[in-house]
Amino acid sequence: KQEVTQIPAALSVPEGENLVLNCSFTDSAIYNLQWFRQDPGKGLTSLLLIQSSQREQTSGRLNASLDKSSGRSTLYIAASQPGDSATYLCAVRPGDSNYQLIWGAGTKLIIKP
Amino acid sequence: SQTIHQWPATLVQPVGSPLSLECTVEGTSNPNLYWYRQAAGRGLQLLFYSVGIGQISSEVPQNLSASRPQDRQFILSSKKLLLSDSGFYLCAWSVRRGSDSPLHFGNGTRLTVT
Fold first, then answer.
1. Shortest Cα distance from A15 to chain B (angstroms)?
2. Peptide bond before A8: cis, by omega within 30 degrees of 0?
3. Cα–Cα distance measured from residue B85 to residue B83, given in angstroms and rounded to the nearest whole number
4. Is A84 helix (H, G, I), strand (E, B) or coil?
5. Residues of chain A whose pLDDT is less than 70?
6. Residue A100 and residue B34: Cβ atoms within 8 Å?
7. Which of A36, A58, A76, B106 has the CA that lies 20 to 30 A from A23?
8. Both ends of chain B: CA-CA distance in Å?
């Protein structure tokens, strides 16, 4: 059974620092992996989607990597800003499902001005 | 551009009352539609998904039902709410073709059953 873990559950860093959020999964048979951010009381915003055949995806200051064999993905945020404060969730689509996503519990990120 | 609307934003309902949450998508056709629930301190749980009008698949047996009367409209309902139905309900859509398209979420409905 696929399980997705995000460590740490919470992270607080000063503004301007580069940081890495971690996501691990137990079954390497995935179709893709997605990173989302969720602001308090709001819905989720899709940040990056990495196909199983890809190693990384970039969007602005965000870079997501995928190492399927080791069951790991990282989300790298460069030059963090207070506006980056949110909960970041990763989700994997199992290779045998067209619709199901397996979700991590998220990392709550606080960027201190 | 595509947008997704979900309402109401918050709802307080007594136990035993009915429920109807509505979600509509604009700017795309034939989307896959999803209802998720996010309980406090827990991950997202897929409740229902739909690949077309009248086509609903349920992931978890529960007190809720879903309907898709139009291509871009998805409704979550209950005849009698339970306390355990409280939570944050999220509607989402994705492009139908290819399961490699990202999910796009609405802003959610905070439901409190009292």
1. 26
2. yes
3. 5
4. helix
5. none
6. no
7. B106
8. 38
Task: List the one residue out of B91, B88, B95, B114 whose CA is nearest residue B15.
Answer: B114
Hey, of B5, B21, B100, which one would you mutate to test binding to chain A, going by the most A CBs within 10 A of its CB?
Answer: B100
Amino acid letter, residue A10: A
Q: Which of A31, A43, A105 sits opposite B43 (nearest CB)?
A: A105
Torsion of CA B8, B11, B13, B19, to 10 degrees: 30
Burial class of residue B41, CB neighbours in 10 A (0-12, 13-18, 19+): exposed
Cα dihedral B61, B62, B65, B71, rounded to 10, equals -50
Position A93, amino acid: R
Nearest to B49 by CA among B26, B66, B64: B66
| Range from A38-42, A76-80, B63-67, B98-102 carrying the lowest mean pLDDT | B98-102
pLDDT score, position B99: 58
B7-61 pLDDT per residue, tens: 999 999 999 999 999 999 999 999 999 999 998 767 799 999 999 999 999 887 6
Digit-coded pLDDT (tens) for A89-104: 999 999 888 788 999 9
Q: What angle do CA B75, B80, B84 make, to 5 degrees?
A: 90
